[in-house]
TrEMBL record:
NCBIfam families: ccmA (TIGR01189). Belongs to the ABC transporter superfamily. Coiled coil: none annotated. Residues 14-214 form the ABC transporter domain. It comes from Methylosinus sporium. GO terms for molecular function: ATP binding; ATP hydrolysis activity; transmembrane transporter activity. InterPro entries: AAA+_ATPase (IPR003593), ABC_transporter-like_ATP-bd (IPR003439), ABC_transporter-like_CS (IPR017871), ABC_transptr_haem_export_CcmA (IPR005895), P-loop_NTPase (IPR027417). This is Heme ABC exporter ATP-binding protein CcmA.
Length: 216
């Protein structure tokens, strides 16, 4: 879409050019480039150690770049890259003594952003991941898959256009994978972008693939 005047409001494009990242003093990624616009999805594949998590962490701003550029076109001056993304790591990052609802309320408050019509209330987000019945249960008493589903519900309570998902299906049963596929489809329909590192099919329609590891 060359003319910004034709872009719908909220349109964004993530652009990555010539990215290089090191872990433990060793170059893991080099010369990496791609772009992703509103509504699009990218699946990152590669063997263990290929650099999938490294790429997501670098995009989230959690690892320094050796070189290269990461930019989000369409962002306003007030929008820092970190405020435009959610990073779902391997760890769920939940507070064990708090209930599912309290975790989501904490998260929404912590991010402290202006309400967005695309953000869901905690109760609704829990409904969307099929956990409304466990809303008041302390997270410490939930299974690995239930915790993963709460971590996914966190993506819904504050709308952010770019989802960086590291093995999002880990610990999910078949029904939860179907729910996740639906959530990702809806996020894209709202103008969101998804980059997911995975070893498994995610049910993402028309997703492009970035295969890492040829030189690592
Ligand atoms: N904390 C760390 N310190 C040093 N090196 C690390 C660290 N984490 C990962 N690495 C190295 O970086 C390389 C890429 O790891 P990364 O976790 O990005 O791979 P991955 O493709 O996500 O693997 P997996 O499929 O096993 O999750 C590996 O060679 C790994 O040994």
């Amino acid at each position: 879409m060359p003319d910004s005047g034709l872009r719908p409001s909220g349109w964004r494009r993530l652009r990555v050019d010539d990215l290089a990242v090191a872990r433990g003093g060793r170059r893991v990624l080099a010369g990496l480039g791609f772009s992703l616009a509103s509504g699009e999805a990218l699946i990152v594949t590669g063997r263990n150690g290929a650099g999938k998590s490294t790429l997501l962490r670098a995009l989230a701003g959690l690892l320094p770049r050796l070189s290269g550029h990461i930019a989000i076109e369409g962002a306003t001056e007030a929008e820092e890259p970190a405020t435009l993304l959610h990073y779902l790591a391997h760890a769920d990052g939940l507070k064990a003594p708090l209930s599912a609802r309290e975790n989501l309320e904490f998260w929404a408050q912590f991010l402290g952003e202006e309400p967005d019509r695309r953000s869901l209330a905690p109760a609704e987000a829990l409904e969307r991941v099929g956990l409304a019945h466990l809303s008041e249960t302390p997270v410490a008493m939930l299974s690995a898959g239930q915790k993963r589903r709460i971590a996914l519900a966190r993506l819904l309570v504050v709308f952010r256009p770019l989802w960086l998902l590291d093995e999002p299906t880990s610990a999910l049963d078949a029904a939860s994978r179907v729910r996740l596929a639906r959530l990702m489809m809806e996020h894209r329909a709202l103008g969101g972008m998804i980059i997911a590192a995975t070893h498994e099919p995610l049910g993402l329609e028309d997703a492009r693939e970035l295969a890492l590891g040829a030189n690592s």
